[in-house]
Design brief:
The chain is of the alpha+beta class and 147 residues long. The protein contains three helices and seven strands. The longest helix is centred in the C-terminal third of the chain and has 11 residues. The two termini are 25 Å apart.
């Protein structure tokens, strides 16, 4: 299977896919940042993260990240590698635009398959009924990935 992310090198894609968690930064309409850890998968050249069944204080569409994306689609996703040996430090940013994808969207099923392939916990969740966030990369920035 060919895995692509527009603008990313093969080494950057490998680094991204080796990460189990990323940080997603969004900005509200007043410019206030919001960062959360997310699970993610790559499908069809886009990154996807579910609005899953883990406990939340508000319904999916009232989540801060969803409201922020509705007001300002610009996002930044970050994965990093930390080590006590600072020669091994590295990070990758995916800067782009995010959009809510409904279960009826044709991209939903392949994205969900990719998410379930990475995270077996999603096999028992009814994600077919829930929206996903799609992130389209506009720029990839990395440090010490291709070294």
């Amino acid at each position: 299977m060919i895995v692509e992310l527009p603008g990313a090198t093969a080494a950057e894609i490998a680094f991204l896919l080796a990460a189990r968690v990323a940080r997603l930064a969004t900005v509200d309409s007043a410019g206030r940042p919001h960062v959360i850890p997310i699970c993610f998968a790559l499908a069809g050249g886009r990154l996807y993260t579910p609005l899953d069944e883990k406990p939340k204080r508000v319904p999916d569409r009232r989540l801060q990240r969803v409201r922020n994306i509705a007001a300002n689609a610009a996002v930044c996703l970050v994965v990093d590698r930390y080590s006590e040996d600072w020669k091994e430090l590295a990070w990758l940013q995916v800067r782009g635009k995010a959009k809510l994808i409904e279960p009826t969207d044709v991209r939903h099923e392949p994205a969900l398959a990719a998410l379930r392939g990475r995270y077996p916990q999603y096999l028992t969740m009814a994600l077919e009924l829930r929206p996903l966030l799609k992130i389209s990369a506009e720029r990839i920035v990395s440090w010490r990935i291709n070294a």
